[in-house]
Design goal:
Blueprint lengths: L2 H23 L2 H34 L1
């Protein structure tokens, strides 16, 4: 499993938590920061998935 997938998942979890705290407290800045971090995590996870797929493809070709 690629490092980016692990880190991406961490960012998604932290972002979701920040977003929820922001909604509960009415803090729009924290809510927005949470959404941003969550989306960055999703992107990073996708990068990791592509790296894994490429690595698997390279192994199949050998």
């Amino acid at each position: 499993m690629d490092h980016n997938r692990v880190e991406g998942t961490k960012h998604q979890i932290k972002g979701t938590a920040k977003e929820v705290v922001g909604k509960v407290t009415g803090n729009k800045a924290k809510e927005l920061a949470g959404k941003l971090e969550k989306n960055v995590g999703k992107f990073q996870d996708e990068v990791g998935k592509e790296a894994d797929a490429q690595r698997d493809e390279d192994k199949r070709r050998q």
